[in-house]
Q: What sequence folds into this?
């Protein structure tokens, strides 16, 4: 009787893949090492929170003489090493008016000449 040599059987690739993934899973499921409790942190230094104010854009009419005074106040602030914008000067004036008593406030408002509302008419411009 002649014996035929047996060829080694191949394992299916699916079987090898499952064994590889089965081997990898136990390594991934290690217990997490518990860390000792951290010392309570010292009180954090308070951080200044800047509040963003909603800005309103507006336009107004002002006499030329008062506009020149506004420019002079800008120069005065620059000489005092505090460059200032026109809007900052106006807001500073509002803050001063707000701090006045009613009597002082009325005196300041009465000292200002009342103006017509609207845009000034330009000389020499004809409407179409």
A:
């Amino acid at each position: 009787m002649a014996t035929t040599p047996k060829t080694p059987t191949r394992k299916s690739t699916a079987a090898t893949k499952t064994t590889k993934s089965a081997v990898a899973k136990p390594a991934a499921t290690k217990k997490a090492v518990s860390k000792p409790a951290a010392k309570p942190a010292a009180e954090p230094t308070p951080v200044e929170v800047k509040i963003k104010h909603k800005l309103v854009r507006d336009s107004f009419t002002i006499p030329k003489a008062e506009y020149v005074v506004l420019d002079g106040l800008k120069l005065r602030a620059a000489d005092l090493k505090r460059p200032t914008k026109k809007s900052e000067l106006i807001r500073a004036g509002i803050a001063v008016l707000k701090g006045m008593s009613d009597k002082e406030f009325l005196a300041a408002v009465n000292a200002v000449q009342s103006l017509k509302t609207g845009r000034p008419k330009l000389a020499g411009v004809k409407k179409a």
